[in-house]
């Protein structure tokens, strides 16, 4: 029976062990990626850390992999199927997804409470978190900097149905014990720069392992302190992934995540007169009725529409790119066949 050893501190469970079963052979060892660099990655194995080459796979912090000797160098051989994958649309011109963290169980959606709390950004990050399959927890940091955190808690709680919302202070330790109690498995932090993610991470880790920066006084915005995603074991159990601050949070195939983030609107939609109601001007629309009665803020409906339109557009663009790639492949094969036939006829005519 395999002894996970040090992997036990990095999220190894019976479920993970079962996922490894088809990938293990006598010459391969299981490992978890703790940090990714260009062409290489840091991993942890049952006996300790190993620096390995990345031959074929696109890897992300949190991935489970197998490592074997290839050409005298430790090399990633197999990527174990992921779960709890946080993905966003890449900033490139191509329609591609960027993996922010893999095999995550809890997503901490972090935002600072001492400024303007951007509800639309929180809704967007919640859609991202729900889509991953992990459990989202909204963490309002810097609770000691405002006179009454309860006001922000109520405001954010109204746009986070189904998610736990907590106000914490790394400086005074307010709410940290409650936050620690709700953490489960591998925990990833997402949020904008200046939200206090690295400071919160250091508090949860019990020591200053991650660098921190102050928010710029000129515009109140944060500077990117975390530049690499890194997996670190938590003293309370499980592991933590700190991610760089997110300026843009494009959705990628997040229809289910949007439904869960806006489950209040989805529940209202069940009472609309028409099954295909677009909640724009249809008679008997329960969603519009809730807006008119004041039970649903217009801002929240606008946010729901915006994210839905964006997700539909990204999906359509991705489908168009895939179709274009298929068309190019077919044309390339057709050209190769024509060349083959032409060469054959030329040979036969000699």
TrEMBL record:
Residues covered by the CP-type G domain: 94-249
Residues that hold GTP according to the record: 141-144, 191-199
Entry's localization field: Cytoplasm
Annotated GO CC locations: cytoplasm
Cofactor binding note: Binds 1 zinc ion per subunit.
UniProt-recorded Gene Ontology molecular function terms: GTP binding; GTPase activity; metal ion binding; rRNA binding
Cofactor: Zn(2+)
Family: Belongs to the TRAFAC class YlqF/YawG GTPase family. RsgA subfamily.
SUBUNIT field: Monomer. Associates with 30S ribosomal subunit, binds 16S rRNA.
Name the record gives this protein: Small ribosomal subunit biogenesis GTPase RsgA
